[in-house]
């Protein structure tokens, strides 16, 4: 039964990886230098790999769904929010699956710092409405 669940998890991860790789290839075309190629996960890291891939996909779709306004400050903040949220999501994956104490502390620090920066950027956007 356990081997059956592992096989199902691996199959699910492979299917998800293919869909994410397809999406990521179009994202990497739009963002030169970003290597979004996905590799099949090893059976021992299926859960963490799937979680990282989901965080990557969420971040990339969040960034690509934002229109540029021509206002450098507003565009910077609007695109950095999902980027920072992606960092928080990845840090949470490390906290859930990671074993290294120093990396877990780094992940905790990232969550705290990025949450604070996200709050600042959201407040900035509210205080600086888009000019028509």
TrEMBL record:
Give the species this sequence originates from: Caballeronia insecticola
Q: Write down the superkingdom of origin.
A: Bacteria
Q: Does the keyword Signal apply?
A: yes
Q: Which residues cross the membrane?
A: none
Q: What is this protein called?
A: DUF305 domain-containing protein
Signal peptide: which range, if any? 1-21
Q: Which Gene3D superfamilies match?
A: 1.20.1260.10
Q: Where is this region: Disordered?
A: 27-50
Q: Which UniProt keywords apply?
A: Signal
Q: Which residues form the DUF305 domain?
A: 17-125
């Amino acid at each position: 039964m356990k081997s059956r669940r592992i096989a199902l998890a691996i199959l699910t991860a492979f299917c998800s990886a293919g869909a994410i790789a397809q999406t990521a290839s179009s994202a990497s075309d739009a963002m030169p230098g970003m290597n979004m190629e996905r590799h099949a996960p090893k059976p021992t890291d299926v859960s963490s790999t799937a979680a990282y891939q989901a965080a990557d996909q969420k971040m990339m779709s969040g960034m690509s769904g934002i229109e540029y306004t021509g206002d450098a400050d507003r565009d910077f903040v609007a695109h950095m929010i999902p980027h920072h949220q992606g960092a928080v999501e990845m840090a949470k994956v490390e906290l859930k699956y990671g074993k290294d104490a120093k990396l877990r502390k780094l992940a905790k620090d990232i969550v705290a710092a990025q949450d604070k920066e996200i709050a600042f950027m959201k407040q900035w956007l509210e205080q600086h409405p888009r000019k028509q």
